[in-house]
């Protein structure tokens, strides 16, 4: 009798533990659940998903959905249905900052939106995807440079032009002790512009006749974009990452672009008041 009572008690305890575990698991899952965003796509129209960071990974749930990155860019994904009325499926995208985006795809002959821009994550957001720890700091700089490269112009900054070539400062950003300079290179001439050198250095605003002008070189940590050639009738954006610095009084930061085997050299001056307008992200 005692043995039977003991077995019943053990069974009741095990049932209670199992129920508690199921409840705890359910509570944890409900808090961490990432609901997919519903999205309709068509056979005849292309849907563009614009992400704030470069795309690292794409997984589609069905071959009935056509997916590709837009040619020449890293943060735009293009979707189209491969057939009419495909069965509901999903799409998962991981971007360079570790963010996971989940979509539930349905067929729609007339999608309500063809261009969807995904918002930046709020402050304090923790990425869901974790990349390898090797060269972590360099990876952060590369990721941040990619982010800055697709940002809209934020500064009516200085510019320099000569013989159809233009160098313009579009914006400055700062993150974790690194300054990011967003530059636009434009070639409105009929001759390609081969880049020889892109320099950043601090120099006196006015050079004294009695003293030699000293240049304080600022060495880039990373340069994102094409720094080889600017083709005719084209524009391109490059991002230069530099270790954080300030510009002393009566001095300027000079950004100098030199042409290889040519004379269309450009330079623009950045004052400390421009630097103070850097955007933190």
Automatic annotation (TrEMBL):
<keyword id="KW-0732">Signal</keyword>
<dbReference type="Pfam" id="PF13595">
    <property type="entry name" value="DUF4138"/>
</dbReference>
<dbReference type="InterPro" id="IPR022298">
    <property type="entry name" value="Conjug_transposon_TraN"/>
</dbReference>
<feature type="signal peptide">
    <location>
        <begin position="1"/>
        <end position="21"/>
    </location>
</feature>
<protein>
    <submittedName>
        <fullName>Conjugative transposon protein TraN</fullName>
    </submittedName>
</protein>
């Amino acid at each position: 009798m005692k043995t039977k009572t003991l077995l019943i008690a053990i069974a009741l305890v095990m049932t209670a533990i199992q129920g508690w575990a199921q409840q705890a698991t359910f509570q944890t899952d409900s808090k961490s659940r990432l609901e997919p965003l519903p999205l309709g796509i068509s056979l005849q129209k292309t849907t563009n998903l614009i992400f704030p960071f470069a795309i690292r990974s794409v997984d589609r749930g069905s071959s009935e959905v056509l997916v590709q990155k837009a040619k020449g860019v890293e943060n735009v994904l293009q979707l189209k249905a491969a057939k009419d009325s495909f069965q509901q499926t999903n799409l998962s995208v991981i971007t360079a900052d570790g963010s996971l985006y989940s979509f539930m795809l349905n067929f729609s002959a007339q999608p309500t939106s063809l261009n969807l821009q995904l918002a930046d994550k709020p402050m304090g957001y923790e990425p869901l995807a974790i990349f390898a720890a090797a060269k972590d700091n360099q990876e952060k700089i590369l990721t941040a440079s990619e982010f800055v490269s697709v940002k809209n112009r934020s500064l009516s900054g200085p510019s320099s032009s000569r013989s159809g070539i233009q160098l313009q400062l579009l914006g400055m950003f700062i993150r974790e002790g690194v300054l990011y300079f967003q530059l636009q290179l434009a070639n409105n001439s009929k001759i390609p512009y081969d880049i020889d050198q892109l320099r950043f250095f601090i120099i006196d605003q006015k050079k004294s006749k009695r003293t030699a002008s000293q240049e304080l070189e600022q060495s880039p940590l990373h340069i994102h974009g094409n720094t080889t050639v600017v083709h005719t009738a084209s524009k391109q954006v490059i991002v230069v990452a530099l270790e954080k610095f300030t510009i002393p009084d009566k001095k300027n930061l000079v950004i100098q672009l030199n042409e290889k085997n040519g004379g269309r050299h450009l330079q623009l001056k950045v004052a400390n008041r421009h630097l103070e307008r850097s955007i933190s992200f």
